[in-house]
Amino acid sequence: MSSFYATLSRMKYIERWALMRSSRSESLSEHCLDVAMIAHALCLIGNKRYGKNLNAEKAALIGIYHDASEIITGDMPTPVKYANSEIRDAYKDVEAKAEKRLVHMLPSDLQEDYLGIFQGDGSEEDTYMRHLVKAADKISALIKCIEEVDAGNPEFRTAKVSTEKVVDEMCKKYPEVKTFCEEFLPDYGNTLDELLSAH
């Protein structure tokens, strides 16, 4: 008996943006799907346009599981998580312990595969790919901010500005992020009719 997958299924009950009044709530499951799709796209862009050799499918998997520890820890709001280096480091430690706890729910013959998803192998390619997953995480947060502000919710104005700054910095470091933001980000917030009539 293993409770790993049943535990992961509870991601749908974890609500993000706990300190904010949202016009529509966002579950951890929704967020992780968005991050997985964007991370996959960033790696494909890197491979096709910038000569990289990134594992896009693995990036999508990392995106799916990147916040799985929050089933145990809950969603720590960004302003709290990054208030200072001491809190940030302590939270990283709590996150790592929560991930190990999840992995140990698995049968022993599956644990190594999931450790590879959660921890990485330390190679240059894997490290770069994980930076792109982190960028996908920030892009997903920016998309949520855009949607909330477009829905007339002023609660997300400040978060939108601060998240845009973070994504802009990532655009300077990672050409894949810049390309995604230029080519794909502008359509977020459009209606379905607008999206379908554009092509």
How would you describe this structure to a colleague?
With 199 residues, the chain is mostly helical. It is 68% helix and 0% strand. The chain contains 11 helices and no strands. Helix 8 runs antiparallel to helix 9 and helix 9 packs across helix 10. It is globular, with a radius of gyration of 17 Å. The protein starts with a helix and ends with a helix. The mean pLDDT is 90.
Short description:
The chain has 199 residues and is mostly helical.
Structural category: mainly alpha
Mean pLDDT comes to 90
The major beta sheet can be summarized as: none
Q: Report the C-alpha radius of gyration, rounded.
A: 17 Å
Seen as an oligomer or otherwise, the chain set is single chain
- Percentage of residues in helical conformation: 55-70%
Secondary-structure element pattern, one letter each: HHHHHHHHHHH
Properties at a glance:
single chain; 199 residues; 11 helices
